[in-house]
Write a structure and sequence with these properties.
alpha+beta, 3-stranded antiparallel sheet, 11 strands, disordered N terminus
């Protein structure tokens, strides 16, 4: 019996994988896919049927990551990037409320730091070709969870409905004794 993958919903031709025993790349025009097979043979067995998976990418560079750097947001404090673009996603490192030109906090207040964090995030999003509307997940780290109401008042001005998924934590300490740090994940078009 021949094993076939028929991806009608993807408008791809059926693939006969009965002769494949290992990971093998296949190409369909601009689309690239990879078939992975596990098992000694591909015959049906009542004990252990063969397993296969199909991965499809519409971009040749989908497996490559690209660093994002802008001078319009503060430089990183260590050996990491402001953000990474990979597989049509943006992964932004934690952002502090530092003024890019001075490297100093805008002030000691959580409100001012939150506003500056979100301005810095906007600059990194724009440098990446994204915006607040493409953010799907944020993580907020606070020095004091009692500040959450103040943070929410400012945060809601930046994220249109539906707001992204979010986690918020109180942490023991933040870099440079910051009051708040926010990181995010966004989709890229």
């Amino acid at each position: 019996m021949a094993w076939c993958i028929a991806a009608k919903s993807l408008h791809m031709p059926a693939i006969d994988v009965s002769a494949l025993r290992f990971r093998a790349p296949l190409a369909f025009g601009a689309e690239v896919c990879c078939v992975s097979l596990v098992g000694d043979n591909l015959r049906r067995s009542s004990r252990s049927p063969a397993f296969f998976s199909l991965g499809i990418s519409t971009e040749a560079s989908s497996g490559i990551k690209e660093a994002v750097q802008t001078d319009k947001a503060p430089a990183t404090l260590g050996p990491y990037c402001q953000a990474i673009k990979a597989n049509n996603m943006l992964f932004m490192s934690g952002v502090l409320g530092l003024v890019p030109e001075t490297g100093k906090f805008v002030s000691d207040s959580v409100e001012d730091q939150t506003e500056q964090v979100l301005k810095n995030m906007r600059e990194i999003l724009e440098a990446s070709g994204a915006s607040y509307t493409s953010v799907v997940k944020t993580t907020i780290m606070l020095a004091d969870m009692k500040d959450i109401k103040k943070v929410n008042e400012i945060y809601r001005k930046y994220f249109p409905a539906p707001a992204p998924a979010r986690s918020t934590y109180q942490v023991a300490s933040l870099p440079l004794d910051a009051r708040i740090e926010i990181e995010c994940i966004a989709t890229l078009q």
